[in-house]
């Protein structure tokens, strides 16, 4: 009965051929005209950087400024100087290379952008009203850009020159998900490292796992067998009342899993295939109603049963007023697993590994992750720019993203996880898989349904979550409808 109830409530709210024939013309057996003929000169091999930009024409903007306005939370678009740190220096060298090739000066200004602090939005809005063209690129979170675009602040990428949305350095899944009525106002790609870094990921204590005779989990992942049930099995092995007092203590006992932050619960849910919205055949965003969502929620409830395994960090956090981060307990070896963001790895003294969110079951084809709705960066080009300035803005964004794909992005991926200051090839491979499996849901990234609501599944169960969704159903449907209508009227 509960299963039908949940489904009902969810509905209220996706080698060329070679001829073998004989040549009738006799072969020319005469001697060559000169024994001293000069062999043709061989061309120098093209660099990966030159190859990345080969599709773009030559441009010289005669020293003009390329000004980036970005949220203060982002760091990947400009750095002040060479420091000897590998990623910092790759970013610096990329910007200098594009400056030299294109005759521009790249600058970045940081603005506050969070709940109650809209400095970046205010700046772009002011430029739009005055016709100022001093900002050529805006880099912000999807949550804020999806709000700003409703005021017509950004240009449609489908109508801009040079931007090759089919190229591998632009995220095709984001392009598809955020294109509404054939219009696209914010995008991300290999230029947007923080979008990758904000993707949901898990970490495990490899030394503790070995002590508990738990198999190497990289093998489990690549065999396609990293599932919610398998994770629960290992949590049960790890969780232990070490002090023998009959109850689980945060600091004195050992846990199966702890959560790094309450919002991580949504990443765990998405990993099992939960979807909020989808786009129908006529381009409308609609609430996604499917049987799988019910199975995912029921699996979450089973995993969160506190009597099965001591892992429900959020329940403890809410009930005891504790710091919402379990990182320090992972660092102390008090838990087998912790979840978090791919770009923010634990600072620990032991060997650890990286995992994607578990699948719902082995029948699920792919692992799935999702980037955070405001901690991951996206790019937009202000609509207030004149056509010549939009042309330059689009050209340079395309060049920066293409160049980043072969220089900065590989360095970032290979050096997120360092063991004894050396990259971990296994971790790098899993991280690349996570980045390649990012799922985008405009319902989440535009915050139609608050991700924190999913905490209710883990803390209070499916029924209370369904009740909350039902209570928010009218507002959710209205938000979707009005966004669709606003897209129709945008240029």
Walk me through this protein's architecture:
This protein is of the alpha/beta class and 491 residues long. It has two domains: 186 residues, Periplasmic binding protein-like II (D-Maltodextrin-Binding Protein, domain 2); 221 residues, D-Maltodextrin-Binding Protein, domain 2 (3-Layer(aba) Sandwich), CATH 3.40.190.10. It is 41% helix and 12% strand. The strands form five sheets. A four-stranded mixed sheet has the order 2-1-5-12. Strand 3 and strand 4 form a beta hairpin. Helix 1 packs across helix 12, helix 1 runs parallel beside helix 20 and helix 3 crosses helix 15. The longest helix is centred in the C-terminal third of the chain and has 28 residues.
Topology:
Blueprint: H1 2-12, H2 48-52, E1 64-71, H3 86-102, E2 104-111, E3 113-114, E4 117-118, H4 119-130, E5 137-141, H5 142-148, H6 172-178, H7 193-197, E6 200-205, H8 206-211, H9 217-222, H10 228-238, E7 255-259, H11 264-271, E8 277-279, E9 285-287, H12 291-303, H13 313-320, H14 327-331, E10 335-341, E11 352-355, E12 377-380, H15 387-406, H16 408-415, E13 418-419, E14 422-423, H17 425-436, H18 442-445, H19 455-460, H20 462-489
Parallel strand pairs: 1-2, 1-5, 7-10
Antiparallel strand pairs: 3-4, 5-12, 6-10, 6-11, 8-9, 13-14
Helix pairs in contact: 1-12, 1-20, 3-15, 3-16
């Amino acid at each position: 009965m509960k299963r039908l109830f949940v489904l009902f409530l969810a509905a209220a709210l996706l080698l060329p051929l070679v001829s073998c024939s004989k040549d009738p013309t006799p072969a020319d057996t005469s001697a060559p005209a000169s024994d001293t003929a000069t062999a043709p000169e061989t061309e120098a091999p093209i660099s990966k950087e030159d190859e990345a930009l080969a599709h773009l024409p030559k441009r010289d903007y005669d020293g003009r400024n390329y000004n980036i306005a970005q949220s203060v939370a982002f760091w990947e678009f400009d750095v002040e100087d060479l420091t000897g740190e590998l990623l910092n220096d790759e970013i610096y060298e990329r910007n200098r290379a594009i400056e030299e090739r294109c005759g521009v000066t790249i600058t970045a200004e940081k603005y506050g952008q969070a709940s109650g602090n809209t400095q970046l939005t205010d700046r772009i809005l002011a430029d739009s009203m005055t016709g100022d063209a001093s900002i050529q690129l805006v880099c912000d979170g999807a949550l804020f850009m999806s709000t700003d675009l409703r005021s017509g602040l950004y240009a449609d990428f489908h109508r801009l020159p040079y931007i090759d949305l089919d190229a591998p350095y632009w995220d095709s899944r984001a392009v598809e998900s955020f294109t509404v009525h054939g219009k696209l106002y914010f995008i991300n790609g290999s230029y947007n490292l923080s979008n990758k870094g904000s993707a949901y990921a898990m970490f495990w204590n490899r030394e503790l796992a070995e002590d508990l005779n738990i198999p190497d989990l990289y093998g489990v992942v690549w065999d396609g067998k990293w599932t919610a049930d398998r994770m629960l099995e290992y949590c049960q092995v790890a969780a232990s009342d070490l002090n023998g007092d009959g109850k689980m203590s945060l600091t004195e006992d050992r846990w199966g899993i702890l959560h790094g932050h309450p919002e991580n619960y949504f990443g765990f849910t998405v990993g099992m295939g939960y979807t909020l919205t989808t786009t129908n055949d006529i381009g409308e965003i609609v609430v996604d109603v499917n049987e799988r969502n019910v199975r995912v929620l029921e699996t979450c409830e089973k995993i969160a049963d506190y009597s099965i395994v001591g892992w429900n960090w959020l329940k403890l956090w809410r009930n005891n007023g504790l710091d919402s981060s379990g990182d320090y307990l992972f660092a102390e070896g008090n838990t087998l697993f912790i979840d978090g963001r791919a770009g923010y790895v634990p600072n620990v003294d032991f060997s650890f590994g990286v995992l994607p969110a578990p699948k719902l079951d082995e029948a699920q084809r792919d692992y799935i992750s999702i980037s955070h709705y405001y901690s991951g960066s996206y790019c937009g080009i202000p609509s207030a720019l004149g056509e010549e300035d939009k042309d330059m803005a689009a050209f340079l964004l395309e060049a920066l993203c293409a160049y980043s794909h072969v220089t900065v992005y590989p360095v970032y991926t290979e050096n997120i996880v360092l063991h004894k200051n050396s990259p971990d090839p296994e971790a790098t491979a899993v991280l690349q898989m996570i980045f390649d499996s990012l799922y985008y849901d405009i319902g989440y990234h535009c915050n139609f349904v608050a991700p924190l609501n999913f905490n209710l599944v883990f803390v209070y169960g499916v029924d209370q979550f369904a009740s909350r969704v039902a209570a928010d159903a009218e507002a959710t449907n209205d938000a979707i409808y009005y966004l669709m209508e606003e897209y129709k009227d945008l240029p």
